[in-house]
Amino acid sequence: MKRFNHDLDIGFRHCDPAGIVFYPRYFEMMNDTIEIFFRNVVRWPFSQMHAVDRRGIPAVSATLDFKAPGRLGDSVNWQLMVGRLGRSSATFRHQAMIDGAEILSGETAIVHTDLDKMASLAWTDDVRAVLAQYCNDAEGS
């Protein structure tokens, strides 16, 4: 199973007055990681997915477990794997590291959706094939 990695520097916009990341910003960073993954790996950028293809991958669940704070100026390595791949859904597992130490882990469950009908859609074969490379538990349904 592959792991997608990308680095993000903690900026002033991410922090509270104590100089640590304000926890809701981590949910934004998790979503950013998924968006970057779809753009760079799946080769289906959100601009194409939403505006042209009229598809989306809304989150239906998101969780985080915090282990250590991130601080202004830290560089965070975000790692993403697919924990579960269903017919029209996927659960992404996130892990964030600073200098090799885990600061948080979490999951985001998404559903491939027709934006005009607001109904779930099966993954296309090409998208499913890429997601499966990052998955340790692909299902047929």
3D structure, described in words:
With 141 residues, this protein is an alpha+beta fold. The chain is 25% helix and 37% strand. The protein contains 3 helices and 8 strands. It has helices at residues 24-42, 46-52, 125-133, and strands spanning 4-9, 55-56, 59-66, 75-85, 89-98, 101-111, 113-114, 119-120. The protein has a 5-stranded antiparallel beta sheet. A 3-stranded antiparallel beta sheet has the order 2-7-8. The model has no long low-confidence stretch (mean pLDDT 95).
Write out key terms for the chains shown:
141 residues, alpha+beta, five-stranded antiparallel beta sheet, three-stranded antiparallel beta sheet, 25% helix, 37% strand, globular
Topology:
Blueprint: E1 4-9, H1 24-42, H2 46-52, E2 55-56, E3 59-66, E4 75-85, E5 89-98, E6 101-111, E7 113-114, E8 119-120, H3 125-133
Antiparallel strand pairs: 1-4, 2-7, 3-6, 4-5, 5-6, 7-8
Percentage of residues in helical conformation? 10-25%
Strand arrangement across the biggest beta sheet: 1-4-5-6-3
Give the averaged pLDDT, no decimals: 95
Separation of the first and last Cα atoms: 20 Å
Number of helices: 3
Q: Summarize the biggest pleated sheet.
A: 5 strands, antiparallel
Radius of gyration: 16 Å
